[in-house]
Write a structure and sequence with these properties.
Blueprint lengths: L19 H11 L6 H18 L8 H14 L6 H14 L5
GO cellular component, one term: chloroplast thylakoid
Keywords: Coiled coil
InterPro entries: Thf1 (IPR017499)
Length: 101
């Protein structure tokens, strides 16, 4: 018989616990109104990108990254017809990612 050290296995967090489909569903449920196509395509791409950043195992909140995101969002929505709707979309977007706007 060999003397082997005991092997301990530790369960990792299920990285697929929140899928991209879940994040997109949360967004659409919280903001069920049509977004003009010039913005909706970009919102979907940005949501997908932020989902993978947010649910990466090495994710940690960063004020600098958040400022960068807000800056990109503001540039993306420059010229959007309604400031009120722009703010609602932002809140729904951030909440869909499990964050606090």
């Amino acid at each position: 018989a060999h003397n082997r050290p005991a092997l301990a296995i530790q369960a990792a967090v299920d990285l697929n616990a929140v899928t991209l489909a879940d994040t997109k569903r949360k967004f659409v449920e919280s903001y069920p109104f049509p977004i003009p196509s010039i913005w909706s395509v970009a919102v979907n791409e940005l949501l997908a990108n932020q989902h993978f950043v947010r649910y990466n195992t090495r994710y940690s909140y960063s004020k600098l990254s958040s400022l960068g995101f807000v800056s990109v969002y503001d540039q993306l929505f420059e010229g959007f017809p309604s400031d009120e709707e722009k703010a609602k979309i932002f809140d729904c977007f951030v909440e869909a990612l499990g964050e606090d706007p």
